[in-house]
Specification:
31% helix, 4-stranded antiparallel β-sheet, alpha+beta
Length: 242
């Protein structure tokens, strides 16, 4: 049953925290919303510039611009295998560039999550981006980059020196256009993704059965979902600009 959001005000909402995740998919559901919205700003920054890395300086370059980075791991297109940076002993990667890679390994070991704890994996298409989403979201990086080098892709997180425009958390209007685009290619639980996305955007929440609503600075966004967590309806009431 749809809620009349025009009848709601700030008193109907409260602060909520993210729940515990149990597996790789659950960890993705916690971070995919805001992380991929932030990625848009990265693409605006780097465009189609060629990329390169210098292990000795710890810099990732796009054209003439260079930023610090952390190396997460690499995907081989030949056999669809993934190798974590911490497991790549033959490349002599400096340890100071592997802090994020090691941090994800620790999460995997603590949670019994082989996708993060095993050094080598056979994976499906797009695994490099899934890892990048988790790395950027769980470790608080501004963005991730998956750099195609012909035979594979190298996944990195960007440092704080990258001038990536922050998401305007006070403006909820992008949620109404971006979220449907996001879930169009997702098999994850849309409801959990939406809930965690609103939490990351600093919203107060209201949960009624299968519906989730978020409030921030006078604006409300609302989503209703079926019993399997798939989006049924998305609507909003936005505060006047300024």
């Amino acid at each position: 049953m749809s809620i009349d959001i025009n009848a709601l005000d700030a008193s109907a909402f409260g602060r909520m925290e993210k729940g515990e995740y149990r597996d790789f998919e659950g960890l993705l559901e916690q971070h995919i919303g805001l992380t991929l919205e932030r990625q848009r700003a990265l693409y605006e920054l780097v465009g189609e510039e060629d990329w390169g890395i210098d292990m000795s300086t710890g810099l990732l370059s796009f054209g003439e611009a260079s930023y610090t980075f952390q190396l997460i791991g690499s995907l081989s297109f030949e056999d669809n295998s993934w190798m974590w940076g911490w497991a790549n002993a033959q490349s002599n990667i400096p340890e100071n560039l592997l802090r994020h890679s090691h941090a994800l390994r620790e999460i995997g070991q603590q949670k019994g999550m082989e996708e993060l704890a095993e050094g080598y994996l056979e994976v499906g298409e797009g695994f490099d981006h899934l890892v990048g989403i988790i790395a950027a979201g769980a470790l608080g990086a501004k963005a991730y980059y998956s750099g195609n080098y012909g035979d594979g892709a190298l996944v990195m997180t960007l440092g704080d020196d990258a001038p990536i425009a922050p998401v305007d958390l006070d403006d909820l209007s992008p949620v109404l256009t971006y979220f449907p685009e996001l879930i169009s290619s997702l098999t994850f639980n849309h409801r959990e993704v939406f809930r965690n996305y609103l939490i990351d955007r600093g919203c107060l929440l209201r949960v009624d059965g299968e519906s989730v609503a978020g409030y921030r600075n006078g604006s409300i966004v609302y989503g209703s979902f079926d019993g399997e967590g798939r989006l049924l309806e998305l609507k909003g009431k936005l505060a006047p600009a300024g």
